[in-house]
Specification:
This protein is α+β, with helices and mostly antiparallel strands. The chain has one domain (about 5-49). It is built from one helix and two strands; from the N terminus they run H-E-E. The longest helix is centred in the first third of the chain and has 8 residues, at about 5-15.
């Protein structure tokens, strides 16, 4: 797993990629170990400039 803020995710694509789609899903759910966690899941579609 990778733990990044929205700003950090956006910076990964900065100057090199054009973001075609960006969506943030925020929800409560279980980890693989069955513990509850508040998730921020980012879905990104980008193409190289």
């Amino acid at each position: 797993m990778v733990f990044l803020t929205k700003e950090q995710v956006m910076n990964l694509f900065k100057n090199t990629f054009e973001i075609l789609y960006f969506n943030e899903l925020e929800k409560d759910g279980k980890t693989a170990l069955g513990r509850m966690k508040h998730w921020h899941i980012y879905n990104v579609i980008a193409k190289r400039k």
